[in-house]
Amino acid sequence: MIKYWIARQMVKRTKNRQFPIETLEQKHVDPNEPFPNDSSYFYGGDKQGNAFITRMAFRSATRPHEYWLDFYLKGLGFFGIREDPGPDGEGFQMGALKYEPVEIGKVWRVTFDGRVYDELKKPHDCKVDLLFTGDHPIYDFAKSSDQRMIARAIANEKWNQEFFHHMKDTHQVHYEQTGKFSGTITLDGTVHELEMMASRDHSFGSRNWLTWDRHYWITGISDNGYHWTVTTIKWQFLGRLTAGFIIGPDGNPDAITECTDLDTISKDQLLPNHGFIDIYTRSGTHHKLEFRRNGEFHYLHDGKYHMREGIGRYKFDGVKGLGIVEFGFHADRYKL
Fold this sequence. Notes:
Layout: H1 2-15, H2 21-24, E1 36-45, E2 51-59, E3 66-73, E4 77-80, E5 92-94, E6 97-103, E7 107-118, E8 123-134, E9 139-140, H3 147-155, H4 161-167, E10 173-187, E11 190-206, E12 212-222, E13 227-235, E14 241-247, E15 253-259, H5 262-265, E16 274-281, E17 286-301, E18 305-316, E19 319-330
Antiparallel strand pairs: 1-2, 1-11, 2-3, 3-4, 4-7, 5-6, 6-7, 7-8, 8-10, 9-10, 10-11, 12-13, 12-19, 13-14, 14-15, 15-16, 16-17, 17-18, 18-19
Helix pairs in contact: 1-3
Protein backbone atom coordinates (compact mmCIF):
# COMPACT_ATOMS: atom_id res chain seq x y z
CA MET A 1 0.00 0.00 0.00
CA ILE A 2 2.90 2.37 0.72
CA LYS A 3 4.43 1.64 -2.70
CA TYR A 4 1.04 2.19 -4.34
CA TRP A 5 0.59 5.56 -2.58
CA ILE A 6 4.08 6.69 -3.64
CA ALA A 7 3.39 5.51 -7.19
CA ARG A 8 0.14 7.53 -7.27
CA GLN A 9 2.07 10.69 -6.37
CA MET A 10 4.65 9.96 -9.08
CA VAL A 11 1.94 9.50 -11.72
CA LYS A 12 0.10 12.65 -10.66
CA ARG A 13 3.23 14.76 -11.05
CA THR A 14 3.91 13.33 -14.51
CA LYS A 15 0.32 13.60 -15.76
CA ASN A 16 -0.27 17.11 -14.46
CA ARG A 17 2.12 18.69 -16.96
CA GLN A 18 0.13 21.10 -19.11
CA PHE A 19 1.34 22.94 -22.21
CA PRO A 20 -0.42 25.54 -24.36
CA ILE A 21 -1.28 24.35 -27.86
CA GLU A 22 1.35 26.65 -29.41
CA THR A 23 4.03 24.86 -27.35
CA LEU A 24 2.70 21.38 -28.03
CA GLU A 25 2.79 21.92 -31.77
CA GLN A 26 6.52 22.73 -31.78
CA LYS A 27 9.46 20.33 -32.12
CA HIS A 28 11.02 19.25 -28.80
CA VAL A 29 14.36 17.42 -28.61
CA ASP A 30 15.63 17.74 -25.05
CA PRO A 31 19.30 16.69 -24.69
CA ASN A 32 18.68 16.14 -20.97
CA GLU A 33 16.40 13.19 -21.73
CA PRO A 34 18.12 9.76 -21.69
CA PHE A 35 16.82 8.99 -25.20
CA PRO A 36 15.54 12.26 -26.73
CA ASN A 37 12.76 11.77 -29.26
CA ASP A 38 10.24 13.98 -31.06
CA SER A 39 7.92 11.97 -33.28
CA SER A 40 5.19 13.21 -35.65
CA TYR A 41 2.97 10.87 -37.64
CA PHE A 42 0.23 11.12 -40.28
CA TYR A 43 -1.94 8.39 -41.80
CA GLY A 44 -4.68 8.47 -44.40
CA GLY A 45 -6.88 5.86 -46.06
CA ASP A 46 -10.01 5.63 -48.21
CA LYS A 47 -12.67 3.07 -49.11
CA GLN A 48 -11.00 2.30 -52.44
CA GLY A 49 -8.01 0.91 -50.55
CA ASN A 50 -5.57 3.80 -51.11
CA ALA A 51 -3.39 4.54 -48.09
CA PHE A 52 -0.64 6.99 -47.11
CA ILE A 53 1.68 7.04 -44.10
CA THR A 54 4.54 9.26 -43.00
CA ARG A 55 6.53 9.81 -39.83
CA MET A 56 9.52 11.87 -38.75
CA ALA A 57 11.32 11.27 -35.45
CA PHE A 58 14.05 13.71 -34.45
CA ARG A 59 16.50 12.18 -32.01
CA SER A 60 19.89 12.94 -30.46
CA ALA A 61 23.11 13.47 -32.40
CA THR A 62 24.24 9.95 -31.42
CA ARG A 63 21.11 8.22 -32.76
CA PRO A 64 20.00 8.54 -36.40
CA HIS A 65 16.63 10.16 -37.08
CA GLU A 66 13.72 7.97 -38.16
CA TYR A 67 11.70 8.70 -41.29
CA TRP A 68 8.80 7.07 -43.11
CA LEU A 69 6.93 7.98 -46.26
CA ASP A 70 4.99 5.16 -47.91
CA PHE A 71 1.76 4.83 -49.79
CA TYR A 72 -0.43 2.34 -51.61
CA LEU A 73 -2.31 3.32 -54.77
CA LYS A 74 -4.96 0.89 -55.90
CA GLY A 75 -3.97 -0.77 -59.16
CA LEU A 76 -0.36 0.43 -58.89
CA GLY A 77 0.92 -1.06 -55.63
CA PHE A 78 3.20 0.04 -52.78
CA PHE A 79 5.73 2.87 -52.99
CA GLY A 80 8.03 4.49 -50.45
CA ILE A 81 11.24 6.38 -49.75
CA ARG A 82 14.34 4.26 -49.12
CA GLU A 83 16.92 7.02 -48.71
CA ASP A 84 17.47 9.71 -46.09
CA PRO A 85 15.24 12.59 -47.24
CA GLY A 86 17.86 15.17 -46.23
CA PRO A 87 19.18 17.31 -43.38
CA ASP A 88 17.08 18.93 -40.66
CA GLY A 89 15.34 22.14 -41.62
CA GLU A 90 13.40 24.63 -39.60
CA GLY A 91 10.60 23.00 -37.63
CA PHE A 92 9.43 19.60 -38.83
CA GLN A 93 11.59 19.07 -41.88
CA MET A 94 14.07 16.51 -43.14
CA GLY A 95 15.23 17.68 -46.55
CA ALA A 96 12.51 16.93 -49.10
CA LEU A 97 9.98 15.87 -46.44
CA LYS A 98 8.17 18.61 -44.55
CA TYR A 99 5.22 19.07 -42.16
CA GLU A 100 3.98 22.67 -41.92
CA PRO A 101 1.35 24.08 -39.54
CA VAL A 102 -1.33 26.01 -41.41
CA GLU A 103 -3.63 26.48 -38.42
CA ILE A 104 -2.17 25.46 -35.07
CA GLY A 105 -4.08 22.57 -33.54
CA LYS A 106 -6.17 21.90 -36.63
CA VAL A 107 -4.59 22.09 -40.12
CA TRP A 108 -1.20 20.75 -41.28
CA ARG A 109 0.36 20.46 -44.73
CA VAL A 110 2.51 17.43 -45.64
CA THR A 111 4.81 17.81 -48.66
CA PHE A 112 7.54 15.76 -50.32
CA ASP A 113 9.42 16.13 -53.61
CA GLY A 114 11.87 13.39 -54.40
CA ARG A 115 12.36 9.75 -55.29
CA VAL A 116 10.33 6.75 -54.16
CA TYR A 117 10.67 3.06 -54.98
CA ASP A 118 8.12 0.41 -55.89
CA GLU A 119 8.02 -3.19 -54.66
CA LEU A 120 10.56 -4.22 -57.32
CA LYS A 121 12.95 -1.46 -56.11
CA LYS A 122 12.40 0.57 -59.26
CA PRO A 123 12.72 4.37 -58.69
CA HIS A 124 9.93 6.85 -59.45
CA ASP A 125 9.65 10.63 -59.28
CA CYS A 126 7.13 11.65 -56.66
CA LYS A 127 5.50 14.79 -55.29
CA VAL A 128 3.18 14.73 -52.29
CA ASP A 129 0.96 17.66 -51.31
CA LEU A 130 -1.65 16.69 -48.71
CA LEU A 131 -3.61 18.84 -46.29
CA PHE A 132 -4.68 17.38 -42.94
CA THR A 133 -7.73 18.96 -41.29
CA GLY A 134 -8.80 17.86 -37.82
CA ASP A 135 -12.46 17.16 -37.17
CA HIS A 136 -12.09 17.73 -33.42
CA PRO A 137 -9.59 19.40 -31.07
CA ILE A 138 -6.41 17.47 -30.24
CA TYR A 139 -6.68 14.81 -27.55
CA ASP A 140 -3.92 14.73 -24.92
CA PHE A 141 -3.28 11.19 -23.69
CA ALA A 142 -2.51 12.51 -20.21
CA LYS A 143 -6.28 12.95 -19.95
CA SER A 144 -7.06 9.34 -20.86
CA SER A 145 -4.64 7.22 -18.87
CA ASP A 146 -6.13 5.67 -15.74
CA GLN A 147 -3.72 6.89 -13.05
CA ARG A 148 -4.74 4.15 -10.63
CA MET A 149 -3.93 1.43 -13.18
CA ILE A 150 -0.54 2.99 -13.93
CA ALA A 151 0.24 3.31 -10.23
CA ARG A 152 -0.67 -0.35 -9.60
CA ALA A 153 1.60 -1.46 -12.44
CA ILE A 154 4.49 0.60 -11.04
CA ALA A 155 3.91 -0.64 -7.48
CA ASN A 156 3.97 -4.28 -8.63
CA GLU A 157 7.52 -3.99 -9.99
CA LYS A 158 10.79 -4.32 -8.08
CA TRP A 159 12.09 -0.82 -7.45
CA ASN A 160 15.76 -0.12 -8.03
CA GLN A 161 17.93 2.42 -9.82
CA GLU A 162 17.64 0.64 -13.17
CA PHE A 163 13.83 0.50 -12.95
CA PHE A 164 13.47 4.24 -12.31
CA HIS A 165 15.92 4.99 -15.10
CA HIS A 166 13.75 2.98 -17.50
CA MET A 167 10.60 4.65 -16.16
CA LYS A 168 11.73 7.89 -17.80
CA ASP A 169 10.91 6.19 -21.10
CA THR A 170 7.20 6.38 -20.18
CA HIS A 171 7.24 10.13 -19.41
CA GLN A 172 6.15 11.39 -22.79
CA VAL A 173 3.79 14.08 -23.96
CA HIS A 174 1.50 12.43 -26.50
CA TYR A 175 -1.55 13.78 -28.29
CA GLU A 176 -3.60 12.75 -31.30
CA GLN A 177 -6.18 14.07 -33.71
CA THR A 178 -8.41 12.47 -36.32
CA GLY A 179 -9.83 14.15 -39.40
CA LYS A 180 -9.38 14.26 -43.16
CA PHE A 181 -6.59 14.29 -45.76
CA SER A 182 -7.10 15.99 -49.13
CA GLY A 183 -4.63 16.68 -51.91
CA THR A 184 -2.48 14.92 -54.46
CA ILE A 185 0.27 12.37 -54.95
CA THR A 186 2.00 12.89 -58.29
CA LEU A 187 3.84 9.78 -59.49
CA ASP A 188 5.99 10.03 -62.64
CA GLY A 189 3.95 13.04 -63.75
CA THR A 190 0.53 11.44 -63.21
CA VAL A 191 -1.57 13.26 -60.61
CA HIS A 192 -3.65 11.17 -58.20
CA GLU A 193 -6.35 13.13 -56.37
CA LEU A 194 -7.04 11.77 -52.88
CA GLU A 195 -9.70 12.33 -50.21
CA MET A 196 -9.06 10.19 -47.14
CA MET A 197 -9.92 9.75 -43.50
CA ALA A 198 -6.84 10.71 -41.52
CA SER A 199 -5.10 10.57 -38.16
CA ARG A 200 -2.05 12.32 -36.77
CA ASP A 201 -0.10 12.19 -33.56
CA HIS A 202 2.80 14.02 -31.94
CA SER A 203 4.85 12.81 -28.98
CA PHE A 204 8.02 14.01 -27.34
CA GLY A 205 10.18 13.01 -24.41
CA SER A 206 12.37 9.92 -24.02
CA ARG A 207 11.94 6.78 -26.13
CA ASN A 208 14.16 3.72 -26.12
CA TRP A 209 12.84 1.08 -28.51
CA LEU A 210 15.07 -1.59 -26.95
CA THR A 211 12.96 -1.57 -23.75
CA TRP A 212 9.67 -2.10 -25.58
CA ASP A 213 8.21 -5.62 -25.42
CA ARG A 214 5.13 -5.36 -27.68
CA HIS A 215 2.07 -3.23 -28.31
CA TYR A 216 -0.90 -2.47 -30.50
CA TRP A 217 -2.26 0.93 -31.48
CA ILE A 218 -5.52 1.06 -33.42
CA THR A 219 -7.19 4.24 -34.62
CA GLY A 220 -10.05 4.95 -36.97
CA ILE A 221 -13.25 6.70 -37.92
CA SER A 222 -16.61 4.98 -38.41
CA ASP A 223 -19.16 5.88 -41.08
CA ASN A 224 -21.54 7.19 -38.39
CA GLY A 225 -19.02 9.65 -36.97
CA TYR A 226 -17.22 7.88 -34.12
CA HIS A 227 -13.48 8.61 -33.84
CA TRP A 228 -11.21 6.47 -31.67
CA THR A 229 -7.75 5.36 -30.66
CA VAL A 230 -7.19 2.35 -28.43
CA THR A 231 -3.71 1.28 -27.41
CA THR A 232 -2.08 -1.13 -25.03
CA ILE A 233 1.66 -1.42 -24.50
CA LYS A 234 4.01 -3.60 -22.48
CA TRP A 235 7.60 -2.67 -21.74
CA GLN A 236 10.25 -5.19 -20.68
CA PHE A 237 10.43 -3.48 -17.28
CA LEU A 238 6.74 -2.69 -16.73
CA GLY A 239 3.41 -4.49 -17.10
CA ARG A 240 0.73 -3.65 -19.65
CA LEU A 241 -0.75 -0.15 -19.75
CA THR A 242 -3.87 0.92 -21.64
CA ALA A 243 -4.97 4.30 -22.96
CA GLY A 244 -7.07 5.87 -25.67
CA PHE A 245 -10.23 7.79 -26.40
CA ILE A 246 -13.54 7.66 -28.20
CA ILE A 247 -15.11 10.82 -29.62
CA GLY A 248 -18.78 10.49 -30.48
CA PRO A 249 -20.69 12.22 -33.27
CA ASP A 250 -21.55 14.98 -30.78
CA GLY A 251 -17.83 15.78 -30.41
CA ASN A 252 -17.57 14.78 -26.75
CA PRO A 253 -14.52 12.65 -25.83
CA ASP A 254 -14.63 9.63 -23.53
CA ALA A 255 -11.41 8.13 -22.12
CA ILE A 256 -10.66 4.44 -22.58
CA THR A 257 -9.73 2.70 -19.34
CA GLU A 258 -9.50 -0.96 -20.42
CA CYS A 259 -9.37 -3.09 -23.56
CA THR A 260 -8.65 -6.62 -24.74
CA ASP A 261 -5.09 -7.55 -23.81
CA LEU A 262 -2.19 -8.46 -26.11
CA ASP A 263 -2.14 -12.17 -25.26
CA THR A 264 -5.83 -12.57 -26.01
CA ILE A 265 -5.83 -10.69 -29.29
CA SER A 266 -2.81 -12.61 -30.62
CA LYS A 267 -3.52 -15.98 -29.04
CA ASP A 268 -3.42 -17.77 -32.40
CA GLN A 269 -1.18 -15.42 -34.39
CA LEU A 270 1.35 -12.77 -33.30
CA LEU A 271 0.04 -10.34 -35.94
CA PRO A 272 -3.61 -11.25 -36.52
CA ASN A 273 -5.20 -10.08 -39.75
CA HIS A 274 -8.64 -10.14 -38.13
CA GLY A 275 -9.78 -9.77 -34.55
CA PHE A 276 -12.12 -8.30 -31.96
CA ILE A 277 -11.36 -5.80 -29.20
CA ASP A 278 -13.62 -5.05 -26.26
CA ILE A 279 -13.28 -1.41 -25.15
CA TYR A 280 -14.42 0.04 -21.82
CA THR A 281 -14.54 3.76 -21.10
CA ARG A 282 -14.53 6.07 -18.11
CA SER A 283 -18.23 6.84 -18.62
CA GLY A 284 -19.06 3.14 -18.19
CA THR A 285 -19.79 2.31 -21.84
CA HIS A 286 -18.69 -0.85 -23.65
CA HIS A 287 -17.82 -0.86 -27.35
CA LYS A 288 -17.01 -3.74 -29.68
CA LEU A 289 -14.34 -3.15 -32.33
CA GLU A 290 -13.76 -5.61 -35.16
CA PHE A 291 -10.64 -5.02 -37.27
CA ARG A 292 -9.16 -6.37 -40.48
CA ARG A 293 -5.70 -5.66 -41.90
CA ASN A 294 -5.56 -5.30 -45.70
CA GLY A 295 -1.87 -4.95 -46.52
CA GLU A 296 0.81 -3.38 -44.33
CA PHE A 297 3.90 -1.19 -44.19
CA HIS A 298 7.01 -2.62 -42.45
CA TYR A 299 9.49 -0.74 -40.24
CA LEU A 300 12.36 -1.71 -37.92
CA HIS A 301 13.55 0.54 -35.10
CA ASP A 302 17.12 0.42 -33.79
CA GLY A 303 17.58 -3.01 -35.36
CA LYS A 304 15.27 -4.71 -32.84
CA TYR A 305 11.72 -3.38 -32.62
CA HIS A 306 9.45 -4.35 -35.50
CA MET A 307 6.51 -2.13 -36.44
CA ARG A 308 3.70 -3.28 -38.73
CA GLU A 309 1.29 -0.60 -39.96
CA GLY A 310 -1.77 -2.38 -41.32
CA ILE A 311 -4.25 -0.73 -43.68
CA GLY A 312 -7.35 -1.08 -41.54
CA ARG A 313 -11.02 -1.70 -42.08
CA TYR A 314 -13.35 -1.84 -39.10
CA LYS A 315 -16.73 -2.41 -37.67
CA PHE A 316 -17.21 -0.17 -34.64
CA ASP A 317 -20.30 -1.40 -32.79
CA GLY A 318 -21.30 -2.96 -36.09
CA VAL A 319 -20.78 0.16 -38.25
CA LYS A 320 -18.07 0.16 -40.94
CA GLY A 321 -15.00 2.38 -40.67
CA LEU A 322 -11.41 2.97 -41.79
CA GLY A 323 -8.08 3.52 -40.07
CA ILE A 324 -4.72 2.05 -39.12
CA VAL A 325 -3.96 -1.21 -37.28
CA GLU A 326 -0.47 -1.02 -35.77
CA PHE A 327 1.32 -3.90 -34.07
CA GLY A 328 4.83 -3.82 -32.65
CA PHE A 329 7.10 -6.47 -31.11
CA HIS A 330 10.71 -6.94 -29.98
CA ALA A 331 12.68 -9.23 -32.31
CA ASP A 332 14.53 -10.99 -29.46
CA ARG A 333 11.33 -11.99 -27.66
CA TYR A 334 8.83 -12.80 -30.44
CA LYS A 335 9.05 -14.55 -33.80
CA LEU A 336 6.58 -14.46 -36.66
